[in-house]
Amino acid sequence: MNWPRGVYLGLEWLWMILGTLCLAGAGAATARPNWLSAAESRLQALEGRPVLRWAPVALLGVGIPLLVCTLKAAQYATFQLQVDTGVHGNIAWNLAHNHGLISSVYGEYNYLGIRFALTGALLAPLLRVWPNVMALVLTQAAAVGSTILGIYLLGRLHCRSLIAAWTLALLVWANPFFHDVAASFMDSNQLALPLFIWGAYFFESRRIPAAAVCAVLFMLTREQAPFAFLGVGMLVLRLGRGRMQKFAGAGIMGGSILCWLAMLAIERRVRGAYAMPEMVLWRQYYPSFGSTSAEVLRTLVHRPWIVVTSLCYPFAKMLVPARVILSLALLPLAAGAYFLPAVTVWLPQQMSDDFAFQHMVWGHYAAMVAGPLFWACAHGLRRLLDIHGRQSRAIAWVLLVSSACFFASSSFLPGEEARIVETWGDSLRLATRTVPPQAKVWSDGLLVPYFCMRRYVRNLPDTAQDEFFEKNLFMPDRVILSRRWLALSERFTRSRVLAFLTGHRYTVAYRDENLLVLANPTAPSDCSEPVQWTNLPSP
Questions:
Q1: φ and ψ at residue 328, rounded to 5 degrees
Q2: How far is residue 283's CA from residue 294's CA, in Å, rounded to a whole number?
């Protein structure tokens, strides 16, 4: 058994053990309510010892981030990081080398024309120290892992109980949202989860400068971020005492709307400057609203009811929020007004097309809404514990849901296709030796993360619907074909790519049962010649 498989199996066993412990804790809290007070006293005594005072920080603030980093290392070794990781790695590399916020995978377009997302680019200086995409992946993984410590500290701050704080940390650790964000490929909005949680903790513990830094960075993660602050403004307006606090809430709401409009304006200007297709993501996520800004405006003016119906129709769409709230032990509903930021940030995802990844809140799409939801859980648990005589029932219920979530999200082993490509390790090491650092590369999408630390890289298209492959297409110095791509890509698309390579007389630089590296015969040995633009043969 190779070490990545050992990591996957180890995490599955850990999740099952934690699920079993949560189930046992739920049973103990139900059968013997006095057990909670005894356990609370025991925990306080343990944390009172100098040697164990920092044990929660070591376990939750170091241990869990290391676990997430180990998972990402295993995914890197078994080709599970997907093409999107390579895209964001290439953007960061280009930015670190003064080429701008662009990726050749996206047809030389500025990323701000696709997404208003800058937080990931702020990590670009790391590539000057370690020019490998794992510098970015591991940094994000450690940040996501630190969320559990932030939740634990929020539990201690609000619930005034060590048992409640640990219970809350277990609930979030077990939640499929945390599992999805930690296991997903790299994307800029993954940082939204730890930034919101730590920003909330710093603000509520009166560390205002640190909270302000987190808030600014959170706003840079995606154009969806202002929706969370819209909810924060509504919360301040609802709970504020006195005229000044009411005005502050209204100001936060107004500022959030202005920030969102400014982000959209920046995206539109960048699209115009690069002659990009308009509203690429609107067509993908909100097809019923229209594919251009004019069509969206006409929809809002002439058919405004679509906004409301898109939230709940077809009615099966309501299963997603029901599943999410239940997986959090209904705590967000108990949070009262503190649930508002989660509701407002959820709106764009709930309105998206039926059962798209954005709507289903799968993978990294969970990151933006997860932070406000987890924060609401801390306040919901506090309110439940304030009900006299219900403490043991509340803790038992949360532990029971945590147990079910640990069992349900305990799968880490890759699927069938992943088990095929995980044998590519030796092939990739040998193939990489034939690809100079300056080479302009086309490659199988699963291999883009391993070749993204260069100016020009492009993933081979699987279908004719790939809207970026033929935009500003460059002549490659090396082409890395895989057995997977040759077998699974659409026949029409594959034939056009192969006809291009045959017509330009590409030669074999490396070949084995997994990978095939083709070289441009006219390129110099170091591939240092300027880029040349080209096109695929007409269909």
A1: -105, 25
A2: 13
pLDDT digits (tens, 9 = 90+) for 441-494: 999 999 999 999 999 999 999 887 777 888 889 999 999 999 889 888 899 999
Angle at 401 between CA 181 and CA 9, to 5 degrees: 55
d(CA 73, CA 10): 14
Q: Which of 175, 211, 206, 174 is nearest to 196 (CA)?
A: 211
Burial class of residue 433, CB neighbours in 10 A (0-12, 13-18, 19+): exposed
Question: Which is more confidently placed, 415 or 206?
Answer: 206
What is the CA 502 to chain-centroid distance, rounded? Answer: 39
The CA distance from 78 to 423, in Å, is: 8
pLDDT at residue 484 in the model: 87
Question: Hunting for tokens 């989660």 — which residue is that?
Answer: 342
**In terms of residues, how long is the chain?**
539
Q: How far apart are CA 118 and CA 95, in angstroms?
A: 11
pLDDT tens for residues 84-121?
Answer: 999 999 999 999 999 988 889 888 888 888 888 888 77
Please tell me the distance from the alpha carbon of residue 327 to that of residue 397, in angstroms, as a whole number.
Answer: 11
Output DSSP code: residue 531. Answer: P
DSSP state letters, 97-132: TTS-SB-GGGTT-BGGGT----TGGGGTTHHHHS-S
Cα distance between residue 213 and residue 308, in whole Å: 35
Distance CA 141, CA 182 (A): 7
Q: How far is CA 170 from CA 112, 131, 317, 423, in A?
A: 37, 36, 28, 35
Residue type for 397, please? W
Q: Rounded to two decimals, what is the model's pTM?
A: 0.93
Banded pLDDT at 24 (limits 50, 70, 90): very high
- How far is CA 306 from its chain centroid? 28
Pairing status of strand 478-482 against strand 507-511: unpaired
SS3 label, residue 177:
helix
Under a CB-based contact definition with an 8 Å cutoff, are residues 198 and 381 in contact? no
Q: Are 23 and 400 in contact (CB under 8 A)?
A: yes
The answer to whether 415 and 369 have CB atoms below 8 angstroms apart is no
Whether residue 141 contacts residue 182, with contact meaning beta carbons closer than 8 Å, is answered with yes
* pLDDT digits 0-9 by tens, 243-253: 898 899 999 99
DSSP assignment string, 187-250? -GGGGHHHHHHHHHHHHHTT-HHHHHHHHHHHHTS-TTHHHHHHHHHHHHHHH--SHHHHHHHH
Residue 345 tokens, joined: 């940030």
* 278, 296 contact by CB (below 8 A): no
Question: Are the CB atoms for 378 and 339 separated by under 8 Å?
Answer: no
Cα 116 to its chain centre, rounded Å, is 15
Exposed, middle or buried: residue 429 (CB in 10 Å: 0-12, 13-18, 19+)? exposed
**d(Cα 91, Cα 84) in Å, to the nearest integer?**
11
